[in-house]
Known about the structure:
By secondary structure, the protein is of the alpha/beta class. The protein folds into 3 domains: 6-89, 3-Layer(aba) Sandwich (Udp-n-acetylmuramoylalanyl-d-glutamate--2,6- Diaminopimelate Ligase, Chain: A, domain 1); 104-314, Mur-like, catalytic domain (UDP-N-acetylmuramoyl-L-alanine:D-glutamate ligase, 3-Layer(aba) Sandwich); 323-465, Protein-Tyrosine Phosphatase, Chain A (Alpha-Beta Complex). It contains 16 helices and 20 strands. It has helices at residues 6-12, 58-64, 89-101, 117-128, 146-152, 172-180, 195-198, 201-208, 285-300, 305-314, 342-355, 376-390, 402-413, 425-429, 432-435, 453-465; strands at residues 16-18, 31-32, 43-44, 68-71, 83-85, 108-112, 134-136, 160-164, 184-187, 220-224, 240-245, 252-261, 264-271, 274-280, 323-327, 331-335, 361-367, 394-398, 418-422, 440-445. Helix 3 crosses helix 5. The protein is globular.
Amino acid sequence: MKKISFEQIANAVEGTFINRELLEEKYMNRVIIDSRQVINNDLYIPIVGERFDGHAFIKEAITAGALCVFSRSKEDVPQDFPAIIVKDTKKALGRLAAFYRQQFTIPFIGITGSVGKTSTKEMLASILGTKFKVHKTDGNYNNDIGLPLSILSLEPEAEVAVLELGMNHFGEIDYLADILKPEIGMITNIGVSHIEFLGSQEGIFKAKTEMLPHIQQEGLIVVNGDDPYLKSIKPQYGRRVKTYGYGDGNDCCVVNYQVLGKGKQKMTVATDRGIYCMTVDYPGEHILLNALGGILIGEHLGIEKENIIKGILQYEPAKMRLNEYKIGDRLRIIDDAYNASVDSMTGALKTLSALKETNERSVAILGSMFEMGSYSKKGHEQVGHQVIKSRPDVCILIGEEAKWTYDVVRCFEAEVIRTYYYESVEAFLATIDDRIMDHDIVLLKASRGMAFEKIREALIRKFEVE
């Protein structure tokens, strides 16, 4: 972390110092919000949540070696310990991150969208990493706590930063983008994730585009030009707009795409700077879509075509995002159960079809999609129609909302697709021996709250032991 004085920190967060003299010529090591992770010379910021209050652990943080703490009241801090008193510790965290971000002149890239943020971040980091030292969001640290922490973990030697912006409600992207002030902003798509809180896809579009006014003057906006909402975005306030997609007319356009089998894909892409031909060893047509925006950003930042291709070839999916587990020659598991939406369900089912070998039986284990509000029934029914179109040999639906998917598949394709429904993961696990067989390829796809990792772990135990 770059050296910043505690005087600067107090000014940045509009805080009041107590015992300032104890911090003369001292600098913090890291910013930490979990007292259990504190080590010597950290700054501890206690966050107040719905079910917890970090102020209760200030003494533990001090014992662990904290150099200074934030607090809403000096009564929460020992009398002889240095602290910065602020009205709201979470907002102070954001102000500190905004100040720290301004200490860097490197390109900052903000990524948002209904689905694909993390995969796109990883793909872009892989491309940019062929030329720059890249700082990126750790995991899915993309909310009003995670994004500031991601910025505050930025090391002095970083040459470019790639960060996710997530949201559930209006105003959240606006808040995060004001902290980040990206040079480049990218929006992957406008789906129906979080429609429960935003009312409609038009509302989601409005919320996601809250980032645009915060992109630096003469900056770049990169969007999925196949998306009917995003393709309407025009250049504004000196910021250019570039589009990518499979459709003609995009600035980065797929000329040819082929599934080669065994997880391999081949794609030819055209931009105004040349033709890119790539054969990759990972599955998922929608994963390659994430590479297209990365090509445009790579070109913008001066990366040569050979290195852009190298970065795409080196990409590795994040955990629980189209990860393949192969148990000898007995079973293949495609784990894509980190989150779920109609779009990502569609992409995962297409991937299952593409990966299936002639000697395998394809099994789609699909769970409920959460945070869809009044759109939930329609969305789950749309997934049912995609199941019918993709034609897995077996479809297993789990969860209360997934019953709508089951009803669609059962009515239309009961004789073609063996279809089963379970109210819970535990209910399915009780019958796993009857449902999953040798030489199956199994897709796991559901919202994170369905805890489908229990199914993955049970399958690994079953086929490794036998």
